Amino acid sequence: MRHAESMKESNSLFSLPNYPAWFGADTFLLAGSAIHWIVISVMAYQLSGSITVAGWFSTARGIMSVITQVTGGTFIDRHDHRTLILVQAGSCALIWFTMGMLHVAGLLTFPLFAGLCLTSSAVFGFLGGTTNASLIRVVGPSRYAQAESLNQGRDAAVNTAGSPLGAALFGVNQAFPFFASAVCDAVAFVSALFLHLPDISEASPTSPENPGEGTMTSAQTGGQPANKSPSFLIDLIDGWRWVLASKTIVSAVGIVGLCQFAVFALHQAVNLSLVQMGTDPLLISLSNVGMAAGTMVGSVVSMRICNNIPAGRGIVAILALTAVSYLPMALWQNYPAIIVSTFLSSLPMPLFAALANGFVFSKTPVDKQGRTRSAVMTAVMLFASGSGALAGELIPRLGFGGFVYVMIALMTLSATLAALNPRIRRIPASPEWPNVPL
């Protein structure tokens, strides 16, 4: 019995030396974003008075993140991750505290609001990949898929609590969500103070050892990444060249990006339609409960089966199921149908992240994690960044139901392309990943 309990404890990610601090920093950064996420759309509409402006504002924020993310990954690979997490958390805390104070003072105009939001998007794009880039140094490649599954469930739980909390605070005082976000970012800052990452040279994806155990910390080595070139531009080009050389990554980015674009566009369509109808912000936030509940359930399942599923066939099946899951929303176009569709579509998402992200990033060299994630996320976000503008422009022309059908067609195309691509379809289960090229 004691041996079984010891094994169970050792299998917990939280038994790893640095995981609790990493998890705390990443979780509270996410919470800070979740609390003001719905509020931003409402405030943009209130301050501008236009649903079209609100849609384009969402797109502008996405474009800002994409632009800064292009160079952000290289910057992350060249600098101490712990320091960058502290900078990100501190900057975000200052931005949202300033937003709250301007609102309290009655000085928050749309230009000021837009400027602070775009600054936040720039920080997110430039430094937001730091916690993810450092994850493999905390958990090791063999437990990366498990960590991705847990993160998906955590993200859903935080978003489930964060969005309604932000909406409720907004109902009491419109400045409160921004102050709450500032507090969350401050807690993330404190959590990162306890994070001591192993040296990059000791945490290689090709090594089966856990990088969190018995390795030198970045503080002991000066916090400098291994294999850093004297030239930022050389490192930037090297990272992008490495990513583009992998036909599997290039294929996956195009296929998944198409599906992500459709999913993001549908979420934007739901939010914009509800805002335009004058729906209470709390009810708008609750429209995401179905998605969060499905993700949490899917996360539990994914942690149990992610290492046994042939990744390629799993990815194809999940893309197809995502398209089918939005049919209730298209057919009935009401609040319950939205909840059902978002629940069904989110059930397999943790498994999808474990299979797709697990394969790519567990096989990516540790000193290229930031650049690879930057390249992948830049491409995916480039797809998604226009979703808000597209929703704002097409909903008045096609109607909500027509818009949903168009997005379902794009998802179906994504699943078909994945099924026809042997590089995606033939990715094996995770125990076989070391034997196949990226």
Describe the structure in your own words:
The protein is mostly helical and 438 residues long. The protein is 76% helix and 0% strand. α13 packs antiparallel against α16. The protein is globular and about 60 Å long. The two termini are 41 Å apart.
Task: Please give a handful of descriptors for the protein shown.
438 residues, mainly alpha, Growth Hormone, Chain: A, 76% helix
Write the layout of secondary structure elements.
Elements: H1 2-10, H2 19-48, H3 51-78, H4 81-104, H5 110-127, H6 130-139, H7 144-172, H8 176-193, H9 232-245, H10 247-276, H11 281-286, H12 289-305, H13 311-325, H14 327-332, H15 335-346, H16 349-362, H17 369-385, H18 387-420, H19 422-425
Helix pairs in contact: 2-3, 2-5, 2-6, 2-7, 2-8, 3-5, 3-9, 3-17, 3-18, 4-5, 4-6, 4-8, 7-8, 7-12, 7-16, 9-17, 10-17, 10-18, 12-15, 12-16, 13-15, 13-16, 13-18
How far is the first residue's CA from the last residue's CA?
41 Å
Which regions have little confidence, pLDDT < 50, spanning 5+ residues? 1-9, 201-226
What general form does the structure show? globular
Query: How many β strands by DSSP?
Result: 0
> What do we call the CATH homologous superfamily?
MFS general substrate transporter like domains
Strand content: under 5%
- Residue-averaged pLDDT, rounded? 81
CATH architecture, by name, is Up-down Bundle
Count of discrete alpha- or pi-helical segments spanning 4 or more residues: 19
Give me the CATH fold name.
Growth Hormone, Chain: A
Please identify the top-level CATH class: Mainly Alpha
Domain tally: 1
Proportion of helical residues: over 70%
Give a quick account of the main beta sheet: strands, pairing sense, barrel closure: none
Radius of gyration: 21 Å
What structural class do you assign from the helix and strand content? mainly alpha
Quaternary assembly: single chain
| N to C succession of SSEs | HHHHHHHHHHHHHHHHHHH
